[in-house]
Amino acid sequence: MDARPIGVFDSGAGGLTVLHECLVTLPHEDFTYLGDGARLPYGPRPLAEIRRFALEIAGYLERQGVKLVVAACNSATAAALPDLQRTLSVPVLGVIQPEARAAARATRNRRVGLMATEATVASGRYEAMIGAADAGVEVVPVACPGLVPLIEGDDPFGEATVAAVREVAAPLKAAGVDTVVLGCTHYPLIRPILQRVFGRDVTLVFSADETAREVAETLARKGIENDPGREGSYRFLTTGDPDAFRSMGSRFLQLPIGTVEQVAVADLERAAA
Amino acid sequence: MDARPIGVFDSGAGGLTVLHECLVTLPHEDFTYLGDGARLPYGPRPLAEIRRFALEIAGYLERQGVKLVVAACNSATAAALPDLQRTLSVPVLGVIQPEARAAARATRNRRVGLMATEATVASGRYEAMIGAADAGVEVVPVACPGLVPLIEGDDPFGEATVAAVREVAAPLKAAGVDTVVLGCTHYPLIRPILQRVFGRDVTLVFSADETAREVAETLARKGIENDPGREGSYRFLTTGDPDAFRSMGSRFLQLPIGTVEQVAVADLERAAA
């Protein structure tokens, strides 16, 4: 039995889609969530810079005493997962591999679209992982630079977001993909819009529930689960505006968020793993 | 080819969960949605009164020239579906039968919980429909009088809603059900809360996508589909506050709602089918 919390991080509120699935699967565990709102979005940054941010945050969470870290951010996973796993003493899980496997399983015509940030597309990680699951699958990637700021903005469900989604969807529809990977943890937050734009014949894949299952299996394998009879709690940290984070969390995840603690970027920089 | 719109109605915003699935399945059709906000909630009312309301609204929609009516409200379906079908000249679909079939298919231990309004529980329609699909399934019904007003209220994702869901879930968990029917179109609007309270081992069933499929099949069978190459539109009517409806719709369904027209209850009363 291990009473330490699980650490989950993202550039902003997108990782809450992963936290939600973790709360469904592991209601008896405690969670510490860190959103790096001050440096959002990660997507347009060079991979080396995102790698540095990820190592800082994971190092900070490790000093907070977490027993496992989930990189609930596709850009950070693409840029830094092997480095995080090599550097930290606790297990680190990312969000790309379960999604790549799910996409390879879901496609019928073996044409898979990828919506992701510029950084994730540039990394080529999805092509590699989907290819490892089925080398015959063709991946059509589209970088979506505008979407994360729109989703974290004032009018996430307005006409501008719908127009941005249509623009991104057009080349994927033209390519005849039957499956689209939502390769950023922010995108499931606008799933109804995505469903309406892509229609019934396209399968949307995202991995939050599979990631949660992987967390549960890892805890069990390592023997570091908490008491299954207790009720877990969650704690929120952000480098950005706590009020903005609270309203995002409540709106998107239907989670009474409570107190959100602010962390200085300088504290993260000092904690680099 | 038939350019008339499809009518969808509910006591409030719950039926938007059905409208969303219709927009995914039938993007080329036009829709007229009517929410009876002035008389919400329906659940605590006698079945005869709900039946009268449903006949008024369906009659009003028929005069607006719709080609099919969806009673996107479980209480109205429970109280009035046969009367609506007998009275209207256009096809009328409800939301209970697809859900009952789905629940009978989903359960492994043949113990199914039902969350619904008092009116829907009192009608006994779910027991009858689930029994018709599998007479060996035991149904455990729980009336949830507080939930619709909380979901349509100012703080739908706050502690009060979480507490109300826990209270409703307790007897269902104690009864050992492995499947729970969300027997009110409002309940999917708080699905993340329901998922966290019930956990991974309970299957939550609601029928919006199956209802949308039934709409599509009915249009095809009757030969009253619109041109598949066009882009459909939607129009919103409410007997309640248009601004409140607009903010609910945007929040829950990520739909830019635009203009919401107000309809007087007296106009509905005059239109009774």
TrEMBL record, chains A, B:
Belongs to the aspartate/glutamate racemases family. Pathway: Cell wall biogenesis; peptidoglycan biosynthesis. Signal peptide: none annotated. Substrate binds at D10, S11, Y42, G43, N74, S75, T185, H186. The keyword Oxidoreductase does not apply. This is Glutamate racemase. Its EC number is 5.1.1.3. It is an enzyme of class 5 (isomerase). GO terms for biological process: cell wall organization; peptidoglycan biosynthetic process; regulation of cell shape. Keywords: Cell shape, Cell wall biogenesis/degradation, Isomerase, Peptidoglycan synthesis. It catalyses: L-glutamate = D-glutamate. Provides the (R)-glutamate required for cell wall biosynthesis. The active site is at C73, C184. PANTHER family: GLUTAMATE RACEMASE. The gene is murI. It comes from the Bacteria. GO terms for molecular function: glutamate racemase activity. It holds the Pfam family Asp_Glu_race. The keyword Kinase does not apply.
